Amino acid sequence: GNHAQGVAMSARKLGVSATIFMPVTTPEIKVRAVEALGGCIELGGDDYDAACELALAFSREHGACFIHPFDNAEVIAGQATLGIELTQQLESPPGIVFLPIGGGGLAAGVAATVKAIHPQVRVIGVEPEDAGSMHAAIKAGQPVDIGTTGIFADGVAVRKVGELTFRMCDELLDDVITVTVDQVCAAVKSIFEEV
């Protein structure tokens, strides 16, 4: 997805190769976008977590640098710039900010900047009910593997959130809610109806 494209583009600019691991269930449009940026794609595993294990094994075997897509302080800091952008573009603080959660990097970063600038703003994490790994982690008090996830919202289908993202989201989010696939579809539809 977006992380894969960012890594591929950065590698191209630096003149180094990037091997990107993606689940076999990744939509073709995402695979083509990464390939167009020069990334070498390795499809493997049925979900993000399995593909991540393959990437970690590859990096150990080849001495490659593994760039975690969410449980990495620098990646979270990069995601945090969205929160800065959001607060700069609004004339007044919003009452609530809703953030999608997969592994938790975007939610952690944006929550950190929004709360730093406007501590009174409620920040709510949103996950599909068939991929509610942060919801389960907060309930358990630690990251837990929730097993098989749905793949309709493939960009947030993560079985286990990161340690760092869990700590940040547990501290910064006011709540984490889950939504149905029908609610996700309705939200996407409403966006296109307004355009």
Please give a structural write-up.
37% of the residues are buried. The protein is of the alpha/beta class and 195 residues long. The chain has eight helices and five strands. Strand 3, helix 5 and strand 4 (122-128) form a beta-alpha-beta unit. Helix 5 packs parallel to helix 7 (163-172). Strands 3-4-5 form a three-stranded parallel beta sheet. It has a two-stranded parallel sheet with strand order 1-2.
Give the tags:
195 residues, two-stranded parallel sheet, globular
Query: Which range does the strand content fall in?
Result: 5-15%
Average pLDDT confidence is 94
Tell me the radius of gyration. 17 Å
Helix and strand succession? HEHEHHEHEHHEH
- The helicity comes to 40-55%
Q: Helical region count? A: 8
Shape: globular
What strand line-up does the widest sheet have? 3-4-5
Distance between the termini: 23 Å
Unreliable residue stretches = none
